[in-house]
Design goal:
Order of helices and strands: EEEHEHHHHEEEHEEH
Strand content: 15-25%
Radius of gyration: 20 Å
Shape: globular
CATH architecture of one domain: 3-Layer(aba) Sandwich
Number of strands: 9
Distance between the termini: 10 Å
CATH topology of one domain: Trna Endonuclease, Chain: A, domain 1
Largest sheet: 5 strands, mixed
CATH class of one domain: Alpha Beta
Oligomer: single chain
Structural class: alpha+beta
Helix content: 40-55%
Number of helices: 7
């Protein structure tokens, strides 16, 4: 069975998200290319084999909202209207992904920077909240690792004591009803193992562009159980894809 498209890593931990095809164009790494290069799947790629009810509900809501705001045009076929609605719904997801990528990039620059600069309000508030919650730390940004048959890129971590692992989650609106899903714990638990700090504290940091921040730290026992779940998903992924 062919590998699905996703994020992959080389054995040395280097990201291998894309490959140059025979026609000279860049495309997502998948299928025979990943197998030929002996790549390993990312943590999130492995978790994609699992149903995500929260995400599925959100995607369905975007389709419904698009249908409500895009009435069928005169003489427009039902199929053409459906294509237009689906395209509009997908654009919401792309916009959210682009916003998240941009905000992650700015946060990475902040935590890597040694030079003073003017930062967006969400960076200032995130740093303040992090200091209040964890104290002053020597943070390491965007570390890529691979081992144990999977790989990943960690948003932020530190080596002091047993360590701390942080994953940023960007949101568009209010953080009053932040939802924490089991895959959040699995992701952080897998990152702890990759980084060699299996007893590290681990937290999701939710933030939006207007500077609201909410830090949710997870229980150590819950993280251990989550990693056991992740290992089952990894085994399923490997068998399913003949790895």
């Amino acid at each position: 069975m062919a590998l699905e498209s996703g994020h992959f890593y080389m054995q040395d931990g280097s990201p291998a998200y894309t490959i140059i095809g025979k026609n000279g164009t860049e495309r997502n790494n998948k299928d025979a290319a990943a197998r030929k290069l002996d790549l390993v799947p990312s943590v999130t790629t492995v978790m994609n084999v699992m149903a995500k009810p929260g995400l599925n509900t959100w995607l369905q809501q975007q389709v419904l909202l698009a249908a409500l705001t895009l009435p069928r045009l005169e003489d427009e076929s039902e199929q053409d209207w459906l294509v237009r609605v689906m395209s509009d719904a997908k654009s919401t997801g792309r916009d959210a992904a682009d916003r998240g990528t941009r905000m992650h990039g700015v946060l990475e620059c902040f935590y890597r920077s040694t030079e003073p600069s003017v930062w967006p309000i969400y960076v200032i508030e995130t740093d303040q909240s992090m200091r209040e919650h964890f104290g002053d730390r020597q943070w390491i940004a965007e570390t890529s690792r691979s081992d144990y048959g999977f790989g990943g890129k960690v948003d932020l971590w530190c080596e002091e004591g047993d360590g701390i692992v942080v994953d940023f989650k960007t949101k568009e609106g209010s953080l009053d009803k932040v939802a924490v899903y089991h895959e959040h714990l699995m992701q952080l638990a897998a990152y702890r193992v990759l980084l060699g700090v299996p007893k590290a504290r681990a937290a999701n940091v939710f933030l939006n562009e207007r500077g609201d921040v909410q830090i949710i730290e997870h229980d150590h026992d819950d993280l251990n159980r989550a990693y056991e779940c992740f290992k089952c998903l990894l085994k399923f992924y490997q068998i399913k894809n003949n790895l």
